Amino acid sequence: MWSRTRRSVGAPLASLHINLFVGLRHTLVEYLETCEVAATLDATDRTTPDGRRDHALMLTLFNTGVRVQEMLDVRPSDLQLVRPFQVRLQGKGRKERICPLGPRTVKVLRAFLSERGIEPTSTQQLFRNRRGEPLTRFGVRYLLRKYTSDARSVVKTLEAKRVHPHVIRHTTAVHLLQAAVDLVTISHWLGHTSVEATNRYAAVDLETKRAAVAKARPLGPVAPAVAAWRTDRTILQWLESSERYRVM
Q1: Catalytic site residue 166?
Q2: Is 7 a domain residue?
Q3: What CATH number corresponds to the domain at position 63?
Q4: In this predicted model, what pLDDT tens digit does every residue of 5-15 receive, in sequence order?
Q5: For the chain, which terminal residue's Cβ has fewer other Cβ atoms within 10 angstroms, N or C?
Q6: Annotated catalytic residue, options 6, 17, 92, 156
Q7: Active-site residue flag, 192
Q8: Which of 52, 67, 152, 161 is catalytic?
Q9: Full-model pTM
């Protein structure tokens, strides 16, 4: 789903830290660029069972943008790995919602279930440690810190970033917005109680576009077909197109 990162990666177009002001409160929105996500996923050692588990976990987190506890509460029976691909989540206040899954995520999850001999109808927590116990939020935080630390040798911009589980959530939201998914849909996707909580990502996207415009040079007229392709994307198209982030 997330593309393999080249061993020499330049600085991303958009800045990680974007300062937003909501009333008198100062909010810092942190997110990862595509190359940084790819490097983090690529850092998992998929030659080992634990590494394949971690890869499935990280890939699903980046795909869904769920809260860590929501991910840890997922059971195999919550997964629908036939079209339409989706996962049932239980959010705050025990509210249920459905989140789409991308083809690459589904492929990895199928392989994970098969390798572990997990029945699709199982109601036990999906992600577990070596002792067979459910992973914890502290465990996920540790794994994310470990893989982003390893990825810093590939993508130097990660050295200046403080990556924690909620950054994954921000990353999914920003990438959805950049793919022209509307704020109301993103709000439902993330399980926000109000679209107001999602509005801050619009400011992030606006700053990214401003930075790009500031660096841009006139390149002549843009072909209508190209312009249409850049502005007409649905959620399913975004999920399908996220194959460009595929790791090897």
Answers
A1: yes
A2: no
A3: 1.10.443.10
A4: 444 344 443 44
A5: C
A6: 92
A7: yes
A8: 67
A9: 0.77
Output 18 or 76, whichever has higher pLDDT: 76
Give catalytic status of residue 175 as yes or no.
no
Which domain covers residue 92, as residue numbers?
18-215+225-245
Structural domain contains residue 12: no
**Choice among 4, 137, 166, 230 that is catalytic:** 166
pLDDT in tens, 73-97: 999 999 999 999 999 999 887 889 9
Structural domain includes residue 9: no
Q: Which of 55, 169, 170, 175 is catalytic?
A: 169
Which one from 55, 175, 192, 245 is the annotated catalytic residue? Answer: 192
Token couple for 138:
């502290």
The reply to whether 201 belongs to the active site is yes
**Number of domains forming the structure of the chain:** 1
β-pair partners for 21: 26
pLDDT for residue 140: 97
Kindly list the distances between the CA atom of residue 192 and the CA atoms of 160, 180, 199, in Å, as whole numbers in the listed order: 29, 19, 11
Cβ-contact 108, 56 below 8 angstroms: yes
- Within-domain flag for 61: yes
Residue partners of 137: CB distance under 8 A and separation at least 6: 68, 69, 72, 165
